[in-house]
Amino acid sequence: MQTISLLGATGSIGASTLDVIRRYPNDYRLVSIAGGRRVEELADIAEAFQVETVAVADVTQLDALKAALAKRNLSHVEALAGNDAMEKLASDKRVTTVVQAIVGAAGVAPTFAAAKAGKRLLLANKESVVCGGALLMDTIKANGATLLPVDSEHNAIFQCLDGARDDARQTCRLLLTASGGPFRGRKDLRGITPEEAVAHPKWSMGAKISVDSATLMNKGLEVIEAHWLFDVTPDRIDVVVHPQSVVHSAVVHEDGSMIAQLGATDMRHPIAYAMGYPKRLDAKTERLDLARIATLTFEAPDLETFPLLKMAFEALEAGGGASIVLNAANEIANAAFLARELPFTGIARTVRHMLDTFKAPAPTSVDEILALDEAVRAATREAIAANPSLRTE
Ligand code: NAD
Ligand code: MG
């Protein structure tokens, strides 16, 4: 029996995870859940899964959470609030497994907490790998934690590498597939609305990652994530656009042989794989019918129109704090676009501006990571306010 803490329970990955847990009540027990601020949804999940603890990040929502629990006769359920509560749940002795599905750098501290507590860590929150880098991988190793990637590309690579010899891991190349997002093939990205950007052609996901998919920043973050998870140098990571999203990624061996993982476009599949590993758990997702799909296509990414992917490679090569600058600037620009304060094309311009102007050495502790993230956020907000050139198409 695995006992689980699900962070980001009210999100898209959260919902898919709950669906898999629901199918295997004898193997998995949900002990605690956490979310940003939607307390009614949290209380509904608490009721459905009979959890012991519920946490909400927004401290102003604690009373509302308690009331929502009381309304469902769940006053005995422990209610917590604030960022510290996320770390508490991630390191809780009652759980063997932490599913980390918080969005953004808010996930950094809980990811480190789960790593320090030696948990089985099912990680969807890619931003914590991008920010945590070598320090996170060292913390995982030093504390005997097990990292199982949930991001579909990394889950695919993890499956492709399973059983590969160490020397093969040191010479292989990684091929990350990208759907290309809703604006694939377009050369002019002016005038794009948030509604158009979040309407992803293949995946149904939270708003932030949907916008990241539309700018290709998501693939950039995933390149950095792959570098740290699999210890592969940036020159051995390639990206190919594959609009059908059937091939989830591949490993290319020294002799040119390519091992790929294919599956339905459904996050319950990688989640179930991570939950069951090393056994396979059937999430009852749709089976692939290759004859019906008939055609799989591939093309090179358009780095001119979608420069954020190139900037991610650049940040990774630059080292130091550059990946944290890239991620924090993107989070602020992404949110500003969703709030209609920045045009779509302003996201890439803002990240470019921040990479050029904000230089920082590699942080050596979690506190330093969080401080750098905060400083870049503040500087990015200031830059957007002060530079009309970032705000006009
Ligand atoms: P989402 O926006 O649907 O959900 C985010 C969740 O995080 C919500 O439950 C929200 O309440 C919670 N949250 C937000 N701020 C928080 C905070 N400060 N503290 C605690 N909880 C907080 O996002 P999503 O699409 O589910 O994505 C979650 C993560 O998984 C992201 O890092 C994303 O990149 C990654 N991911 C998602 C998908 C996908 O298909 N959705 C695929 C691969 C990776
Ligand atoms: Mg992905």
* Count, helices: 18
The backbone outline, from C-alpha atoms, is: globular
* SSE order: EHEHEHEHEHEHEHHEHHHEEEHHHHHHH
* Mean pLDDT over all positions: 97
Beta strand %: 5-15%
Structural category is alpha/beta
Q: What portion of residues is helical?
A: 40-55%
Number of strands: 11
Task: Pick out the low-confidence regions.
Answer: none
- Rg calc: 20 Å
How is the main sheet built?
7 strands, parallel
Task: Give the neighbour order of strands across the main sheet.
Answer: 4-3-2-1-5-6-7
Terminal-residue CA separation:
54 Å
Cofactors, ions and other ligands in the entry: nicotinamide-adenine-dinucleotide, magnesium ion
Properties at a glance:
binds magnesium ion, binds nicotinamide-adenine-dinucleotide, globular, alpha/beta, 393 residues, seven-stranded parallel sheet
In a nutshell, what does this entry contain?
The protein is α/β, with parallel strands linked by helices.
Structure report:
The protein is built from 18 helices and eleven strands. With 393 residues, the protein is of the alpha/beta class. The chain has a seven-stranded parallel sheet with strand order 4-3-2-1-5-6-7, with helices on both faces. A hairpin with a 5-residue loop joins strand 10 (247-252) and strand 11. Helix 11 (217-230) runs parallel beside helix 14 (308-318). It is globular. The model has no long low-confidence stretch (mean pLDDT 97). Bound molecules: nicotinamide-adenine-dinucleotide and magnesium ion. Nicotinamide-adenine-dinucleotide (NAD) is lined by residues 8-14, 34-36, 57, 86, 101-103, 106, 124-127, 151, 203, 205-206, 208-209, 267.
